[in-house]
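Task 17 of the worksheet. Students: predict the tertiary structure of the chain below and write it out as structure tokens. Keep your answer in the requested format; marks are given for formatting as well as content.
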Amino acid sequence: MKTKSAARNIFYGGSLFFLVIFVALTVDSHLYALNVSTDQAGLTEAVVRGKRVWEKNACIDCHTILGEGAYYAPELGNVWIRRGDPDDPEVAREFIRDWMKSQPSGVEGRRQMPQFNLTDQEINDLTEFLRWVSTIKTQNWPPNDAG
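Model answer:
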């Protein structure tokens, strides 16, 4: 038969055990993210400015990056890979630049992306941000090429 003292010790011991496991897994996740999944060397000033453009224009209100954001418009975490040529990165840059400048497309029955009137520098920075996002090791997310 268990006493109150034994039950209390089991509770505190179990709580401490799971707290230690939780902290260890959290530290491991952060170390993995810092050392493996993110291309820190490629994190240039243009990428940082592109992220600011992304945030300033609230792109995440419609699009997702790596599954985070709204599901109104396509996933953009892999747009560089989907619309590019591995041997010629300028193909993806051109596609994104032309796409941004041509909005709204005016195609009847399709969702329309607004025209943000971004400068060429802002479009280039946003393109660099999307290029950088495509280098993140996502463990095969999204599950299909279309996002």
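Marker's comment: The radius of gyration is 22 Å. Helices lie at 4-37, 45-56, 79-83, 90-101, 120-133.
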